[in-house]
């Protein structure tokens, strides 16, 4: 139960201090630490990364969504193909999905050339992959549940009954 | 010939918050914990339903009592959430905010000279509403020792057996107090014994932490003497859409509707469409908001304890009600906190008897602002 509450607070903001999470959940700081350690040990929490709005940074960042179709045989299953693809650092997310294609893969690189080369030289030649469709990201509006607009000003009156 | 205010208007003083509001408006660094409304926007699905209704040109009046679909949705919702059983066609009146419903009840059932007991500290509109209706306010002070719950003793001490009606709000604005079914039972006994109507403002019902909201209308013999007020402002973050409702036996709703049909005609149509959607598809949004409020509530309570300002454990609405430190009066504390540190809170005295020496602190504000505001309060207290 306490793990759930700690997780809910961290999902709101993973940078809340242990002391603040303790205040929010009514647990002691050591209980919060223990809950986080358990969540990490169980593999529920896999890491902590900032949600970046790349458009606000000067450096170019090229991202693409890639649809992959694969064929399976007796020796090769989805997990085998996934493991192979996931090992590439350029791949930032990889999911088996229902629908018209098999894998939904997110790829990141420093330039259009780098991402294109990666897909044509590393992904397409994989024997089980029969088709790739690459969609370059043009603008991102929401990432990890956070809208990337300018935000809404609080236009409430400073006092109300 | 002059615009001399009528006597019953003269009787009502201007709001005590006004002075603070003017100071706050002059600064641009104010963090406000003085707000009585959610910091969330209305769930998008409900806003979209409102937009859709506008696009389809649904901009005419509705039935006086509100759209039949909305009343049916409300009937199902209050049965499901609060165990309240009200017939959609005869026992529900949709109003322009719960405030209108409260006003209608006073005007419908309070005769000049009738006494109405008001559990205090309380929302600031009850006293003026009773006065406008020609009634006499009988303040019933609740005590911090009782965690600001209304008790039979407090009613007896105030002489409430002579009153015609009792009005209260639980979960409470401004204290954050809640009342359980067991704690409501003696109040129900008192109302039955002394034949009081009960006006139960349950606008914060969904914002009940550590337990379930209990409505006095579910207690034996109480449905027939109770008007329940609720609405979409707080739980569904719809304050500006102005939509509330009253639940009461058919005869009472009929009487209230007699005023409503002449003065309001019908509640805002766009808001009614939003409300149907809010009930049908926004329970998840409400749950998410309630979870966030609860984290903030515990955070704020913990910080006041660390700062050394005693604060009973508020379990409802989105307010805590700490005491000001020894040697302060709440008005001065609130004013200096605002002018020196840019934090807006409301002194408890604004909310009637029993509120002196306290502050209403709203946590309907983002965690970052809360953290900063409490750090400022800590500096202010430590610097004295």
Automatic annotation (TrEMBL), chain A:
Protein name: Lrp/AsnC family transcriptional regulator
Keyword Transcription: yes
Keyword list, A-Z: DNA-binding, Transcription, Transcription regulation
SUPFAM superfamilies the record matches: Dimeric alpha+beta barrel, Winged helix' DNA-binding domain
PANTHER family: LEUCINE-RESPONSIVE REGULATORY PROTEIN, TRANSCRIPTIONAL REGULATOR AZLB
Domain HTH asnC-type: 1-79
One function term, GO molecular function aspect: DNA binding
Superkingdom to which the source organism belongs: Archaea
UniProt keyword annotation of Protease present: no
UniProt cross-references to Gene3D superfamilies, sorted A to Z: 3.30.70.920, Winged helix-like DNA-binding domain superfamily/Winged helix DNA-binding domain
UniProtKB/TrEMBL annotation, chain B:
Names of required cofactors: pyridoxal 5'-phosphate
Highest taxon above the source species: Archaea
Matches recorded under InterPro entries: Aminotransferase_I/II_large, AspAT/PAT-like, NHTrfase_class1_PyrdxlP-BS, PyrdxlP-dep_Trfase, PyrdxlP-dep_Trfase_major, PyrdxlP-dep_Trfase_small
PROSITE patterns cross-referenced by the UniProt entry: AA_TRANSFER_CLASS_1
Enzyme Commission number(s) of this protein: 2.6.1.-
Broad enzyme group: transferase
Alphabetical keyword list: Aminotransferase, Pyridoxal phosphate, Transferase
Gene Ontology MF term list: transaminase activity
Aminotransferase class I/classII large domain span: 29-377
Family matches, as Pfam families: Aminotran_1_2
Family: Belongs to the class-I pyridoxal-phosphate-dependent aminotransferase family.
Subunit structure and binding partners: Homodimer.
Entry protein name: Aminotransferase
